[in-house]
Amino acid sequence: AQKVTQAQTEISVVEKEDVTLDCVYETRDTTYYLFWYKQPPSGELVFLIRRNSFDEQNEISGRYSWNFQKSTSSFNFTITASQVVDSAVYFCALSELPAGTALIFGKGTTLSVSS
Amino acid sequence: SQTIHQWPATLVQPVGSPLSLECTVEGTSNPNLYWYRQAAGRGLQLLFYSVGIGQISSEVPQNLSASRPQDRQFILSSKKLLLSDSGFYLCAVGEQSYEQYFGPGTRLTVT
Hints:
The complex is a heterodimer. By secondary structure, chain A is mainly beta. Chain A is built from no helices and twelve strands. Chain B starts with a strand and ends with a strand. Chain A binds chain B through residues 33, 35, 37, 42-47, 50, 52, 91, 95, 99-100, 102-103, 105-108, and chain B through 32, 34, 42-44, 46, 49, 51, 59, 88, 90, 92, 94-105, 107.
């Protein structure tokens, strides 16, 4: 059965610190997709990134970077030089084929960035 | 890109009262639609999904139901609310790109 584990429930950092959010997944499929979403205090989930199981290249987008390692079934998310606006709940999610299958979410990590 | 509307934004209802939450989508056609619930301090739980008009799949047995009367309209209902129905309800749209996009949500408090 598929499962997503975000072991860190809450993380607190001070502005400009780097922070890594961990995500470990379980699936029996060889083809699957991984996602990260951000949920700011307003509540709406914001899509950040999608990764398919055949693409293990790390991705960088501004201060955000993602490290996908199939060998450890992990898809970790790093925020460099964190800012107060990064404070939110971050969810990792998994989707298997076919397209349109519902996402399996982890329980989320609450990130608090203080000034 | 699509736009997802949900209403109402917030709702306070007594136990035993009916419920109707609406989700409408613009900017896409024949999308997959989803209802998720997020209880306080917990992750997201898939409630229903629909791949087309009148086609509803339920993931969790409960006193909630869903309907899709039009291609871009998805409704979540209940005949009698329970205290445990309180939570944040999110409608999502999924397309062939696999990711899902979420609406602004409805915060339901059952008293």
